[in-house]
Write a structure and sequence with these properties.
alpha/beta
Length: 170
Amino acid sequence: MHNMHNLQSALVLAEEVGRLLTAQGLTLALAESCTGGLTGSLVTDVSGSSDYFLGSAVTYAYSAKEAVLGVRHETLLAHGAVSAETAAEMAQGARRLFGADIAASVTGIAGPEGGLPGKPVGLVHLHLSAADAEIGERHVWDADRIGNKRLSAEAVLRLLVRYLRRQGNA
């Protein structure tokens, strides 16, 4: 039951993202790591998403983040894949790659393994990149691997909704 509610609330968020993008005539791209494409899956659960959703790059490995999104090797070495810096370069890279008005990224440690000193399991960095904004967020979730992925994808959608609502009121 709990999972159904989560999926339902995620779909509501995805529909809201779609409404706001459509109303403002904006396009969206995504760059995902720990969520494995879940955010893009939620976005495309909405009928008509082809009007505003350009695509998503699921870049799990360092090499993919570099080759596909243009994340700098130095950034990954200095800060790691799960960092505000890498999330920012992922979003900026996706915006460039797809030619989107807005791009959002997510990178994190879904668990149960992979925690490091200062980087616990459940840590996730999100980033939204647009012509007029660069917004980063950091969260630490306390769920299992699947739960952490879902919470991360929903947080990306919430970040998009917040940004787009501000735009709509500008």
